[in-house]
Amino acid sequence: MAPPTAAPNAILTRAINVYALPKELLDNLIVRSIQAEAPEEEDAQPSSRSKTDAASSGPAGSLRCQACPDIGFETVEDQRAHFKSDWHRYNVKARMTGRAVSAEEWEGMVEGVSSISGSASSSSGSSDESQSKVSRLLRKAKLNANINGGGSVDSDEEAEVADRVRRAQLRTAVIWFSPSSPLPALGVPQDTQFGIHRALFPPLDTASDYLGELRRMQLSARPSIEGTDGEDRRITLLMVAGGHFAGMVVGLKPRGKGDKMEVKGAGEIKIFKHKTFHRYTTRKKQGGSQALNDNAKSKAVSAGAMLRRYGEAALQEEIRQLMSDWEEDIAMSERVFIRASTHGRKSFVGYEGAVLEKNDARIRVFPFPTRRPTLQELLRCWHELVRTKVSHLSSDALQALDDAYIASLQPRKPIIKPVTAPAPSAPSAPIKTPDELAREDRQRRLSEMIKKGRLDALRPFWEKHQSEFDNSALGLACTSGQEDIIRFFLDEIRLDPTVSIDGKKPYDLCSTRGARNVFRRTRYEHEEWYDWAVAHVPSGLSEEMEEKQDSKKAERRKGLKEKLKEREKARSEAEAAEEGEKEKERRLEEVDRQRKAAMPTMGGGGVQKLGGRDSKTLGMGGMSEEMRMRVERERRAKAAEARFANLGAK
Question: In the UniProt entry, which residues are flagged as the active site (predicted)?
């Protein structure tokens, strides 16, 4: 038997464009398994499918339904009408629980429900009513199954399973479709699945809406942008990473034979705009931008860091300028795919006068890994986005994949609302009695008397209220340096100097030398009163010893003053001698200068006669009378010095 040959119009032998699917395939597609489950059916929980494939049996007919058992169709119109019936909708949703019903069973189920219309021409209102009744039947069937099986309805478990199904719908990057029956004319066998990236679709509430949106996306349905004069539909691709930028505006309609190929290797892709450029922003083998490195560490001041900062600013400015230049094309784009880091997205959105708003519904991220931004990488990403994925898996294999995927989703952690503890009320100030207030006032007055040295007022006050005061008064007097108050406490009141105050002895709290001497004089006079070593008081101090110490200090101060006077006198004499030497040097320099100035005028420039004027006379020619007298005085002084030197030598 010869192997089957491929159909003349087989579509699986070539790449299938998402925006140019054959009409026959579109009319037979249904959304597959997880995606087909309606989100509002909270009571539906997935389980294994029926062991018997619905399409494996049924009456004679070339067209079958995978969801409904024992049914076949002679024409495509009959099959489409069946897809719109309540029976088919019920089986599509119930197939996840493995409880698809036949036509006879369906009739028995709807006996108690009135006016469930399976007509294809029903209005939107009746369609909503049918959906509600189908949902009620699904819940009723589920409850009956639990009761008949002896099980109980665990609402928490059902809610968890339903939540996982909803999350599975929202997290799949690819929407999978499958034909409701084989398509021999297109070469599509029974177990075939077609996948399309979710990023190409707008945000939809229910997964079943993707089929209608896929039909509206086709170029045959909308060949040009609505509201424009035949402008081609387009998508914008933008990438920035590591200082490299690549951007491209691509048309959904293939390039015509007469159109110029804008980019090498683009093939049939129609490119409206494209641009690449590069700036030095990232250190080799370091990764990350310079701005992120500055935020994580201290700001580097090297030449390379400054170049990278400049490159980042220049790259951002160039990208924003390009976005402004492409504003019209971006506005006409159905989707805008952006690959950028959180910091890099500031080049596209979030700045004053930005072409794209941050919450623009058209913005998408590439749903697959990308490489360095180049034009060739953008072309590769474009092919990956618009090329329909094709797989061939059996029903059991698909069910196993669905169950494994749902099971892999972690249970959603319950949101625990923080219980705000009541703010502790501020403790109310205790109410003081009049006696307590009076004692506090007396303590305050005592402190003021000690600090100000008011001994006359302190004596009667202490005698009257001494039972309320303790040894801390001595410590306060020591820190204040009040010598008379300390003497009063030690000699008259006899406060114990060995008692510590805040860990220190009163002697150690003294702020002046005079206050410490009061303790030493008391020790000298009354050695037997206390253990002065425990009080940290050194040897006693008598009046004679204190006077001797004062006289020694006075003599020492006097000697220091005399030494200072002698030093000042010697310094003044040295300065005067130095000034005299400087004045003498200045006079000699002035004489020499005037002598040199008079040399050219002596003798009138002719030959001098023998026996003429002597050198002294010639030397003073041209000088003023005052200068000649000064020179003569200098000569006589030098002669006198020479004579004294000769006399000393003899």
Answer: 290
Nearest Cα to Cα of residue 178 among 20, 32, 24, 370? 32
- 183 φ, ψ to 5°? -120, 85
Question: How deeply is 405 buried, as exposed, middle or buried, from its count of CB atoms within 10 A (0-12, 13-18, 19+)?
Answer: middle
CA quadruple 566, 567, 573, 579: dihedral, nearest 10? -170
CA–CA distance, 305 with 297 (Å, rounded to integer): 13
Return the structure tokens found at 177: 């479709």
In this predicted structure, the answer to whether residue 34 has a pLDDT above a threshold of 60 is no
> Half-sphere exposure (CA, 13 Å, Cβ side) for 300?
17
Note whether 94 and 100 are within 8 A (CB).
Answer: yes
Told to judge if 290 belongs to the known catalytic residues of this protein, a careful annotator would answer: yes
First to last CA, the chain: 155
With vertex at residue 649, the alpha carbon angle to CA 645 and CA 650, rounded to the nearest 5 degrees, is 120
79-92: burial string, b at 16+ Cβ within 10 Å, e else: bebbbbbbbbbbbb
The residues, any chain, with a CB within 8 Å of residue 191's CB and separated by 6 or more, are: 392, 393, 394, 395
For the chain, domains (ranges, CATH) are 18-216 (no CATH), 229-386 (3.30.420), 440-545 (1.25.40)
User: pLDDT tens digit string along 81-139?
Assistant: 888 788 787 887 776 655 777 777 777 676 655 444 443 333 444 445 555 556 666 66
Which of 82, 86, 89, 37 is CA-nearest to residue 64?
82
Report d(CA 574, CA 340) in Å as an integer.
Answer: 81
DSSP 188: B
The Cα–Cα gap between 18 and 335 comes to 14
Are 235 and 36 spatial neighbours (Cβ–Cβ below 8 Å)?
no
Query: What six digits make up the tokens of 479?
Result: 């820190």
pLDDT tens sequence across 340-398:
988 889 999 988 999 999 899 999 999 999 999 999 999 999 999 999 999 888 878 87
